[in-house]
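Re: the 771-residue chain
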Amino acid sequence: MTWIGRRLRRFEDPALLLGRGSFVADRSSTAAAVKFVRSPVAAGTILGIDIPDGASVFTARDLAGTKPIRPILERPDYRAVGQPLLAVDRVVHTGQAVAVVVGRDQADAEDLAEQVYVDIDPSAAVVDVDAALAEGARQVHAEAPGNVLVEGRMKTPGLDQAFAEAAAVVAITLRSGRQSAAPMEPRGGLAEFDPASGRVTLTASVQMPHMLRTGIADVLGMRETDLRVVAPDVGGGFGQKMSLFPEYAVLVWLARHLRRDVAWIEDRRENFLAASHSRDQVFGVKGAFAADGRLLGIDADLRSNVGAFSCYPVTCGVEPLMAFAELPGPYDFAEYGVRSRGVTTNTCMMAPYRGVSRPMLTLTMERLMDVAARRLGIDPWDIRRRNLIKHFPHKSPTGLVYDPATYLEAMEAAEQRIGLGEFRARQKRLRDEGRYIGLGVSVFSERSGYGTPAFAARKMQIVPGYENVDCTMDPSGYVDVRIGASPHGQGLKTALAQLVADELGISPEHVRVISGDTDATPYGWGTFASRSMVIAGGATKLAATKLADKIRLVAATLLEVEPEAIELADGLARVRQTNRSLAIADAARAAYHQSYKFPAVGAGLRDTALYDPGGTFSNACHVAEVEVDIGTGGVSISRFLVVEDAGVLINPMIVDGQIAGGVAQGIANALYEEVVYDDAGNLLTASFADYLPPTAAEIPEIDIVHMETISPATVTGAKGVGEGGAIGAPAAVLNAISDALSPFGIEALEMPATPDRIRDLLRKAGISPHG
């Protein structure tokens, strides 16, 4: 029996479904409560801070011995900006922490925080990315003239000739509204001080516990061994919880300074104000096309609003540099010119959110394909057919090497399943009745599972990527797998148990995966970027393979055969082609209690492995069917199809869940969610009354079809799948809206495509609310 490929129910779920999970807030009831006092303005000089008598309040002056958070890219076009733990003499975004209050409990801390008065002389804020780039714009940071923190440029030698020879040049400008990951559980941390050792244990809702420990130790000037970081159950992360935030460093400082336990539980308004945002981007692209629709070249100007600071450790380059490198997507063309800038403004810091820049860069290429198809009179499916990558390995204009995938095959499978001919007939019939439905297609690649080579190419000073795994079988035959990845809802522990079970010939129920504790796991980089199954899974497979060799050696010695004669299956070490066997648990006990018999194995059964791959590419085709109400501008989605190729599926049920959740977030990006500031930098969407995540009523049934390409780029055969749903969905939805409104010559080029925006497009096209 093999376990890989089975729809095994997740081992993580029963405790959560029965209310037995353990989150930060569950552990914090006896600690003193911490509340941060935050700036009410987006920019200004701090003139003074009035503190109520007897209150336990701390400001930047108290933290004078700490360092700012200052992530580094070692490249000449990068400007490093330090983020103080508490604002020192000026504030640069609404919600920046200025002081911290410690109270007996949450209510006491909030009452005290209300009494702290921060006197700020406000100055004009720079909020919009293009306003920040305008000549004469006020500088957000003195060290960033022109408000550019990072800039990537390149131009292939034949770009100008490609445009000169083009039959058509298609130019479009797209805009993505700013988003919040809006995890179900906001941020929070409990810092517990041990008076005997002087150590602090920080239990926090985070994605990268080892990296958090390193960052906090650096800014506080403490030894890493004096800090333990634990990620308990985490109520959603999606990238927002992978960065080092000042609040966590302040918590550890408070615990050491006060020699007591302190806890901070963020509320939703605070999360919208001060946790990271994402994807406030404007992409202008020009495509050079031959008469037959072949794409000859792209010239792109990509602008990403990265907020007031640079996220640690990946830096503010994460969005603009990803867009720079990966804009070509699944398309085969040679000539490419690009300028991609990360622009600082008086807004909340940007950090990765599911897909990072890929939803926007996919939207850009997919909208370009549809607009070009209409311009050239070519079917939108056919123009993709002529341009998708078909031969592998493929090298993109930016030097990325694509491993085998099924870009064309996935699209053609989607085309057949969706019933394109039947849809067009129905579309024509409904248009005659005054109803407007549309079909949108999106084909994309998802770069995933990349290790240090990819991050080193960005010139990061801190280069993440590899994973270590420690795999141990105890004397009873049960296995502990200790990983540096830090899963928080992805079902990784179940999938890794399936992987180990197949290697060792045991049941997945006999495998325990340990994660999220810097005292109990090897140094690793956490869970983000569709990497865990590829990299942590790869390291787990390698470690389990080595452990299996040791088990075979022990069993062979006891059964007096050669190790090659032993197979591990069904909990037994069997001699091939005989009825002789030994329980694997008995072999394990012998390895510990009769170790002298196995000098080549040593005492016990344990092995480790490191895995650091170059990366792989998943791919998918999304198709959305929508109806647009031209009276209200409302959009409803009636069908959504995903044809995806993520290689070997360790647990298809988990994969389906990842895809469905990603698609829901992609639909949110396309139609609903937007963080909005006014011109003065005041946040206008600080609650779910104004920031609108979709409900189950807005998300259609998602039809998922799997394809499988076995790639040599990954030892498990698995490719990343966690972000794909969010990457492809926005483009499919906006292409469908544009198809629905094509009788009016309307192209949807901004997301979210809210009813107001769609009605504005209809008004500009001369269409009244009644058609």
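The chain is about 30% helix and 25% strand.
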